[in-house]
Design brief:
single chain; mainly alpha; 3-stranded mixed β-sheet; two-stranded antiparallel sheet; elongated
Length: about 170
């Protein structure tokens, strides 16, 4: 569509004055998305991408929501229009780049966790019953005696798990 075919309704101009585009939890942005969801707008026009979203994830999530609402997105500075074949191609490239970025982040995080574990480090999560982790070292907790008793009842005395549960209760 050419710009001269668009009708702008003054009721649907959304400006988040003094708000950063860092996240989508902005009042005017939320009203704009609600208007799109309700079918009150069929096209959202923004001056630049960074006025809409600052992260690839937020941008793609916004475009995905707008697609579900049958609402097109036009970014004037980037000549981006999801209603055109070129805009759809650009969106596909954005999505591929975002997927690559997410994969690389996951790979780096997992690599770091593996290295930490191989060096005897703790990667977080819930400490096993009977232990506490503080000041970069493991310590026995108040439940350590209970854990020891469970193992004795199971391995030495031969009780079943249900019998151990009854004893502990």
């Amino acid at each position: 569509c050419d710009a001269h075919e668009w009708t702008v309704n003054d009721d649907h101009i959304y400006i988040d004055e003094g708000q950063t585009g860092k996240n989508t939890a902005r009042p005017a942005f939320q009203r704009m998305m609600l208007a799109a969801e309700q079918g009150a707008v069929q096209r959202i026009v923004a001056v630049k991408l960074d006025r809409l979203a600052r992260t690839t994830r937020d941008f793609l999530a916004t475009v995905d929501r707008l697609r579900r609402y049958d609402c097109d997105l036009v970014l004037l500075a980037e000549s981006f229009d999801t209603s055109t074949p070129h805009g759809k191609l650009a969106l596909t490239m954005f999505a591929a780049i975002a997927e690559l970025e997410a994969s690389q982040i996951t790979e780096r995080v997992m690599s770091g966790k593996r290295q930490k574990a191989q060096g005897g480090g703790y990667n977080g999560g819930r400490a096993p019953l009977g232990y506490e982790y503080a000041d970069e070292r493991w310590m026995l907790s108040a439940q350590a005696d209970t854990v020891r008793r469970i193992f004795e009842l199971l391995l030495i005395d031969g009780y079943s798990l249900s019998a151990i549960a009854q004893i502990l209760n």
